[in-house]
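SAMPLE LOG
Freezer: B-3
Tube label: C17
Construct: single chain, 131 aa
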Amino acid sequence: MGNVDAGCAGEQTLTKIIALIYRKAGVSREQFLSYWMNTHGPLMLQMAPGLLHYTQNVPMTTADNPEEPDGVAELWFEDMDALEEYLTWRNTTDAAELRTDEDLFQDSRLTRRYVVEEHVFKRPAPTNLPG
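STRUCTURE (predicted):
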């Protein structure tokens, strides 16, 4: 493999967190997904500072494999400063409601968060997007 040139022409970069989320013991996959999408998602949008985009991805698995996450979240931010502000906020009393909510349906000990810089070279045309 060759060197990666971070300044490729036409490239757009995004700063984001990708989180692998596992359900809490005793919570079914259906219960997890329902709560995550219908309760936690709206709460995240309401509370999280600096959030530009929030996506919940549901792994398309048929087997109940405990090593695979039950959900993958993407949290997009304007830049690294905004992302760091969000991470600092998560440890304040202002974020207590969100952390308490997470403890209702996910196993926070297993959750893995990765801070990444996404390099986008091509996006689908708006007419090609589903929905």
